[in-house]
Give the backbone structure.
Amino acid sequence: MQHGRVVSITRYPVKSMGGESPERVRVTARGLEGDRFWAVRTPDGGLGSGKTTRRFRRVDGLLDLSARLTPDGPVVDLPDGTAGPVADPGTARRLSALLGRPVTLVPETDLPHHDDSPVHLVTTASVRRFAELAGAPVDPRRLRPNLVLDVPGDGFVEDGWCGRRLAVGPEVVLVLGEPMTRCAMVNAAQPGLAHDPRLLRALATGHDLELGLQATVERGGTVAVGDPVRLG
């Protein structure tokens, strides 16, 4: 039985920057091809993020930037309209000047760049319910999902999916894990979206700061916009 369809795919070639929305993408055990493989690193070894934890360091300004994959590798789109290759040390120097602190750009090694899981998904039903709680429209970009699934209703339907398998298109199977706990990045300004402190407060009051699901990849393959999704 079909439970919905994929309406958008997003990958973030550099962690905590804006991403890109391909029509189709390869998925492996690590997640979407190229997703968060690069990260900004601070001098103390932390990875640039919207929050500070053991692994991460809050670096303001990352959401004002975006990254994308090209045939020659990932690039960061800079405010002056140029694109800086992530592997070029000159790009890190330009980012350091923009961000007002010294940073480098590093590929993933033994330390994962993902927060908690390789894939993150939300449903249109949960986004509609979040908007009701907030009293204002909610752009899914604030939630930084890899997959947005169109399903009927206006509740947090994916809460009941934890522990189940989800077939996405003809090839990919995800194992659905725990709900995603939200942080201040939900409120943060990014291109086209103003800072909005109502959002995290509304989600804290209405749903214990949880929205969307973490997922791991049981079987890889290709996912495309429009693919049906089926719960197992």
Notes: Residues 34-107 form one domain.
